[in-house]
Each structure stands twice: as C-alpha cells, then as structure tokens.
Amino acid sequence: MTKIVLVAACALVDADGRILLAQRPEGKSMAGLWEFPGGKVEQGERPEETLIRELEEELGIEVNEACLAPLTFASHSYEDFHLLMPLFICRRWNGTPLGKEGQALKWVRAVRLRDYPMPAADEPLIPHLLDAV
Ligand SMILES: Nc1nc2c([nH]c(=O)n2[C@H]2C[C@H](O)[C@@H](COP(=O)(O)OP(=O)(O)OP(=O)(O)O)O2)c(=O)[nH]1
C-alpha cells in the first residue's frame, strides 16, 4: 500500500521577486538538491503550523499565519512513498533567513529556478511560481 507523506513547503518571495531555495544537506535523502523550505507535517499539526515551526527552526524567521497564502500543491510518487505537498507563498516575515541547520540558501529569480536541480516533485510547481511573482 502506498504511504502518503504530507509535507508543507513555502516559497518565500523577497521585494525583488526572488524566491528562496535551500539545499538539502549531506546525509539526508535527495542531498544536494534545492528545495522550498518546509518539512513533514507532524501528528496533530496543521500545515500552516508546520511551516511556522519549520521556518523558525531552519531559517530563524518569524512568519505570521496570515502571511501564508496557498499557491498550489505537488502530488508525486517517489519509489517508497507518495508525496503530497501544499506549497504556500509568503512575502512578509520578520528577520533575515539564515541556514540555521548548515544548509546553503539562494535567492533565485523565478525564470532561473530551472538552473537549480530540485526534487522531482518540485518541477511542476515552477510554472505556478512564474505566474505568481
Ligand atoms: N521541504 C521540502 N521537501 C521536499 C520538497 N520537495 C520534495 O520532494 N520534498 C521531500 C523531501 C523529503 O522526502 C520530504 C521532506 O522531508 P523533511 O525535509 O522534513 O525531512 P527529512 O529530510 O528528514 O526527510 P527524509 O530524509 O526522511 O526523506 O519532502 C521541497 O520543495 N521542500
């Protein structure tokens, strides 16, 4: 039976319309690929709560739930699980994003997103970002 993994992710967009990508660190699955910050939705959490928690843990920024807007979602079968990943967009936060877990960060224009190798689930999200920013 397919295991569905629910992950909440966020496109942080700065004042110049650039999007923040984070590089998955060595030792994790899909190491080296560039992803939207976020993580697995834990038991009892809403996706918005997951993001507020993950953005603080991973990047050290504070996000208000009212600033998280649903954009689209990914539904993608990997070999050992099916990923269901709502993607939110956020243009306002407090603090400056830093790779608190040692991950590299990059602000990328939407038209340049394809220059950064991403997990397979993310590719269909790119046209939505091109429309949004
Ligand atoms: N945050 C995030 N995760 C993504 C994206 N695209 C994508 O396929 N994923 C996958 C990678 C992971 O399998 C999962 C997120 O898990 P995670 O980052 O919270 O936890 P993890 O690295 O410990 O996961 P894992 O090693 O157990 O696979 O979603 C994305 O754009 N952002």
From TrEMBL:
GO biological process: DNA repair; DNA replication
GO molecular-function term, one example from the UniProt record: 8-oxo-7,8-dihydrodeoxyguanosine triphosphate pyrophosphatase activity
CDD domains: NUDIX_MutT_NudA_like
Keyword tRNA-binding on entry: no
Keyword DNA repair assigned: yes
Reaction(s) this enzyme catalyzes, per UniProt: 8-oxo-dGTP + H2O = 8-oxo-dGMP + diphosphate + H(+); 8-oxo-GTP + H2O = 8-oxo-GMP + diphosphate + H(+)
Annotated Gene3D superfamilies: Nucleoside Triphosphate Pyrophosphohydrolase
Cofactor(s), names only, from the UniProt record: Mg(2+)
Domain Nudix hydrolase: 3-131
Keywords: DNA damage, DNA repair, DNA replication, Hydrolase, Magnesium, Metal-binding, Mutator protein
Tree of life domain: Bacteria
PROSITE patterns: NUDIX, NUDIX_BOX
Binding site for Mg(2+): 38, 58
Binding residues for 8-oxo-dGTP: 24, 35-38
Pfam family membership, one: NUDIX_4
EC number assigned by the record: 3.6.1.55
NCBIfam families: mutt
PANTHER family in the record: 8-OXO-DGTP DIPHOSPHATASE (PTHR47707), NUDIX HYDROLASE FAMILY PROTEIN (PTHR47707:SF1)
Family per similarity comment: Belongs to the Nudix hydrolase family.
Protein name stated in the entry: 8-oxo-dGTP diphosphatase
Species whose genome carries this gene: Roseibium aggregatum
Gene name of the record: mutT
